[in-house]
From TrEMBL:
GO MF terms held by the record: phosphate transmembrane transporter activity
One Pfam family linked to the record: PHO4
Keyword Membrane: yes
Record keywords, A-Z: Membrane, Phosphate transport, Transmembrane, Transmembrane helix, Transport
GO process terms (BP): phosphate ion transmembrane transport
Similarity remark: Belongs to the inorganic phosphate transporter (PiT) (TC 2.A.20) family.
Membrane topology label: Multi-pass membrane protein
Organism per entry: Palleronia marisminoris
Record-given protein name: Phosphate transporter
Length: 495
């Protein structure tokens, strides 16, 4: 006969084993959490190594300059994916219109497509005329300077991502070229009027993006949100907003895509974009009517109508970013390849397909491995976004970039997008204050909110505002100093 005390003893042993397994599981989870960043670093090193090997193979053995520059270019592209892409996808994720996985997948596909299908086939080797090509004594000195610019820009964007600040990768490259040019040829080689225009974009870009985003949110509020019958108003105005979005993006893509085939003028762009906008608005009307048929007359229910347009706008912004900014990032690499092949420094060079592939692949891997940190910060930690507010940010970015390019204003797409988020947040604060004052006029003294209480109800996180603004201001100087140091080191190593 079994011992009656055996069961409790066995039960105790099983409980002890369960407890031990739980401890092991917690240790394994902690180990995986700690090692996760190391996986990203390891994959990044593989991407950089593959880019260097590919450069050596494609260029028939290639020189050391081209191979090392390809590694630096891949490092820069990884950092663009980790930092810059968050500006396009962050609002959609913060508004819960897209999951993190969905946002990363859409951004990776659209960024790559933009880079390869509509990316710039010609780029200024000295990054928008900052340093005159004749300032460099020989092609070797030029290639070393461009390598230093690439490395410095990548290091600075990496540091900015680490501290959680979305910065302009184009400005980082500009600062890198500036520092390398000064180190190689002195201050007289720099076009200071060009640098002044770039510095002006630090103010123009976020202010313009913020004002347009605030104006769009104000339009949404007064035409839809503050109406007694919100659903009826939405059926009228949401298709109009979709039409405006289609017009803006069609204009941009017409300029980027058709310029390789024909020289299209402003009238031609309008003739293409406006009809597309009208057709999309007409097509959206039955869809909006069907979606809104069972919606209650509440502000929250209207978010459903903006979800799909927000996702489409985020995808188009990623495509536009891939078409526009990748060329700026791999421009120094293309310049090095051209100088190595021709033995001369040229003011304009074509970007080989393999160089664009390095840029596109690097952005995709950087986004997947490191992008979620900045996407969460942009989408959730600056101000609270819903699909309506996030749509205003995305539409503001598109409209501002198009308007600025036609007016010849130097703007940064990164600064515009982040400025749009701040513009939406600050407008909400101002609007809430105005509405609180209006309500106070009709309340009894005991029911009124004190001015101090109203001031405490901030809708924008000031700490992020100061961190991002400081990072923007020091991007060009920081990248320039890093580039000058890297240039000096590279010249010392090779002599």
């Amino acid at each position: 006969m079994d011992d009656p005390l055996a069961a409790p003893d066995n039960s105790y042993r099983w409980k002890t084993l369960d407890s031990d397994l739980n401890r092991v599981s917690r240790v394994e989870s902690a180990t995986m959490f700690v090692s996760r960043p190391l996986v990203g670093v390891g994959v990044s090193m593989v991407v950089i190594l593959v880019a260097a090997l590919a450069a050596g193979i494609v260029t028939s053995g290639g020189s050391v300059f081209v191979i090392v520059a390809a590694a630096f270019g891949a490092y820069m592209a990884l950092n663009i994916g980790a930092n810059d892409v968050a500006n396009n996808m962050g609002p959609a994720v913060g508004a819960n219109a897209l999951s993190m996985v969905g946002a990363i997948a859409i951004a990776a596909i659209c960024e790559t497509a933009g880079a390869l299908l509509a990316g710039g086939d010609v780029v200024s080797t000295i990054s928008k005329g900052i340093v005159a090509p004749e300032s460099f004594a020989d092609p070797t000195g030029f290639m070393l300077s461009m390598m230093a610019a690439l490395l410095a820009a990548a290091i600075w964007v990496n540091l900015a991502t680490w501290i959680g600040a979305p910065v302009s990768t184009t400005h980082s490259v500009v600062g890198g070229v500036l520092g390398a040019g000064v180190a190689a040829a002195g201050f007289d080689a720099v076009s200071w009027p060009t640098m002044g225009a770039i510095a002006a974009s630090w103010v123009i870009s976020p202010v313009l993006g913020g004002l347009i985003a605030a104006a769009l949110l104000s339009l949404v509020n007064f035409t839809i949100i503050y109406r007694d019958d919100r659903i009826t108003a939405a059926r009228t105005w949401v298709p109009v907003l979709i039409g405006v979005m289609t017009t803006a993006f069609t204009a941009y893509l017409a300029v980027k895509g058709l310029k390789k085939v024909i020289d299209i003028e402003l009238f031609g762009v309008i003739a293409i974009a406006v009809p597309m906008g009208v057709l999309s608005a007409l097509a959206a009307r039955p869809l909006v009517r069907r979606q809104s048929r069972t919606l209650p007359n509440e502000e929250k229910s209207l978010n459903v109508l903006f979800r799909l347009p927000l996702v489409v706008s985020a995808a188009l912004l990623s495509f536009a970013h891939g078409a526009n900014d990748v060329a700026n990032a791999v421009g120094p690499l293309a310049a090095i390849v051209s100088a190595e092949a021709s033995g001369a420094v040229q003011g304009q060079v074509s970007i080989p397909l393999w160089v664009m592939l390095i840029g596109a692949a690097g952005i995709s891997f950087g986004l997947v491995l490191f992008g979620p940190k900045l996407i969460r910060m942009v989408g959730n930690q600056i101000t609270k976004l819903n699909p309506m507010r996030a749509y205003c940010v995305a539409l503001s970015a598109a409209v501002t970039v198009i308007a600025a390019s036609w007016l010849g204003l130097p703007v940064s797409s990164t600064h515009i997008a982040i400025g749009g988020i701040f513009g939406v947040g600050f407008y909400r604060e101002w609007d809430a204050e105005q509405r609180a004052r209006a309500r106070n006029k009709t309340r009894q003294p005991a029911e009124k909110l004190a001015r101090e209480e109203r001031r405490r109800r901030k809708l924008v996180r000031r700490s992020h505002f100061m961190t991002i603004a400081a990072a923007w201001v020091i991007t060009v100087p920081a990248a320039a100093l890093l580039s000058a140091a890297a240039s000096t080191l590279l010249f010392w190593v090779t002599t």
